[in-house]
Amino acid sequence: MKTIINSLIVMLLLAGCTSLDEEVYSDLSPNNFYVSEADADAAVIAIYNGLNRRPFHDTYFTSLTFMPAPHSASRLPNRRMFANYSFDASNFQIIEPYWSAVYDMINRANTAIDRIPDIDMDETLKKRLIAEAKWLRAYNYFNLVRLFGDVPLYLKETTSLEDVNQPRAPMSEVYAAIIEDLKEADENLPPNRTDDKKGRVTRGTARFLLAKVYLTMAGEPMNDGSGLEEARTLLVSLYENKGAYGYDLLDNYADIFKLDNELNAEIVFAVQQSRAVGGQGTGMAHIWGPLRSPFGGTGQYHGGCTQEFYQSYDSTDVRRDVTWLERYTARGTNQVFVFGSGNGPYGDPRNGMAQAKYQDPEMNFVDGETDIIIYRFSDVILMLAEIENELNGPNATAFDYLNEVRERAHAGTYDQQAAATPEEFRELIYKERFWEFSFEFHEVFDIRRMGKLKEAIETGFETKLFGTSYDPKYELYPIPLSEIQTNPNIAGHQNPGW
Question: What is the CATH number of the domain that holds 52?
Fold first, then answer.
């Protein structure tokens, strides 16, 4: 059940219940809205709604995170530019709207965090809602700092023009704020949710993200491994007490993504979608599906993975054909298209093999029902494998974690001869994360933190076609030109090289 979306609909209906024939003595504003428990809950739901808006993941986030993978390919210039690095700071299709959308969510979170304490309501629920808003703020800053580096740090509601233009805060300061928010979320969020609140963040979600933050900080460019021990403790807690948190590794990889199995035990966090309300669904199946797609919209076929990457999976690995569509029957016909066959656009390997994780044959044009999966329990296990290697080298425990994920995928398992050094084990993890989490918004983050961007550019399908050479500036995206031009406190402080 789409509990967050349904709650949002109720909130909007209540907000609009004013007769046009009546004299209006008060309008909804921050000063008169935050007066009840229901208002507090609605304010937090509004933060989730910022993530739910259809273009956020379908166009902005997918371009920024998936396209930089060395195995990405696209038939569209506005996607391809994020694979071959031909964009610049003036990009108004992806970079600028993404930046604006994230800061809008952050301000919604700040408003809730600042206003909810003054509401006369149950104190436990109050702390829970504030913690929920802080998790959502931390999640958004975590994406910003990884994508852009030093960014303006807003931790209070924007109420005047003086609040608007903040300078760029150092990455270390942004990470410190993220960690503080997530620790408070850990203390005050519930361990799990009842059915009517399912999908909202929990203590497990907070511990997961805090561990991921520490692991990310241990890599490039921070190189701060001081949090790795704490990260392992958090992840071991989730792993050994998965039942208490409501998590598990599903037996069948394909079941994770089924439309009738949303918010299953493997989901740590997902953004709920709905085709029932216009603008509250996802266009992932339509935008990233093949032309005349059998599973969503009409299929715009913006791109996907290379044939080489598809063939890099073990032949027995079930993740390959759950993730990528090698062949399909065009909707309404008996015509079968085979990728790379030379038969039409789908037969041209230049265009990329379409994803298959998002399927909703009944979607209303671009409003699909399939939830946007952000984090999964298998990531707990792979992070444990990676951290064990970083702390103790490629020992039996690290391989056990890695092989648990591969066994579920029916891929061949590794013995300890597969990696004799931490560097060799890191390479196994790097490849495994591509196979396990393809098209789930992890690619660029793993490439950067693991110091693989130069390699990704030198070996990338699109970068080789375009002739892109590695430049250190590509380690971060440029701050949007619109922000540089309108914020006097960061004018002249663009990321180096941009």
Answer: 1.25.40.390
